Every structure is written in structure tokens, then in C-alpha cells.
């Protein structure tokens, strides 16, 4: 992922969704987790929801639930 995407939570979300749909979920998860630490609180909610969707897609249900819980807290 290029430096311009690291500055854009929306671009990271789109990238992660594309990765998930193309069976490259771990790659998308890495990008989401990197973006999470630098995102605003509102953007963190969206990133955490996508982390939950991505984890759910690969069968990591407990971790997905934790991400959804963090997003909704």
C-alpha cells in the first residue's frame, strides 16, 4: 500500500473490501490495522467494522466480535 493510502481511511476501507472479495483478506487486515492507529475516532469506528467483517470472512469469529464491540463502544 502506497503512502497516499496510509493517509486516507476511506482508501484503506476500499482496499480492504477489495482484498476481502478477492480472497486476500490478511493483506487487507494489515492495512486496516496500520490505519487504525492514525485515524480519527470516527474513522476508527469504520475501520473497526471492516476489521470485524474481514475477520468474520475468514472464520475468526471471536476476534470479529471483539472488533465489532470496540467499534460500538
Which structural traits does this protein have?
mainly alpha, flat, 5 helices
Write the layout of secondary structure elements.
Elements: H1 3-6, H2 9-21, H3 25-36, H4 41-57, H5 61-71
In total, the number of strands is 0
Helix content: over 70%
Unreliable residue stretches: none
Average of the residue pLDDT scores: 91
Largest sheet: none
Rg over C-alpha atoms, rounded to the nearest angstrom: 11 Å
Beta-strand content bin: under 5%
General form: flat
Structural class: mainly alpha
The first-to-last residue Cα distance is 29 Å
Q: Please write the string of helix (H) and strand (E) elements.
A: HHHHH
Total count of helical runs of at least 4 residues? 5
Commentary on this structure:
By secondary structure, the protein is an all-alpha fold. It is built from 5 helices and no strands. Helix 2 packs antiparallel against helix 3, helix 2 (9-21) packs parallel to helix 4 (41-57) and helix 4 (41-57) runs antiparallel to helix 5. The mean pLDDT is 91.
Amino acid at each position: 500500500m502506497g503512502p497516499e493510502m496510509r493517509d486516507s481511511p476511506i482508501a484503506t476501507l476500499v482496499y480492504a473490501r477489495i482484498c476481502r472479495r478477492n480472497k486476500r483478506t490478511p493483506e487487507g487486515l494489515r492495512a486496516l490495522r496500520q490505519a487504525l492507529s492514525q485515524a480519527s475516532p470516527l474513522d476508527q469506528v469504520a475501520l473497526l467494522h471492516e476489521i470485524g467483517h474481514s475477520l468474520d470472512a475468514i472464520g475468526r469469529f471471536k476476534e470479529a466480535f471483539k472488533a465489532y464491540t470496540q467499534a460500538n463502544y
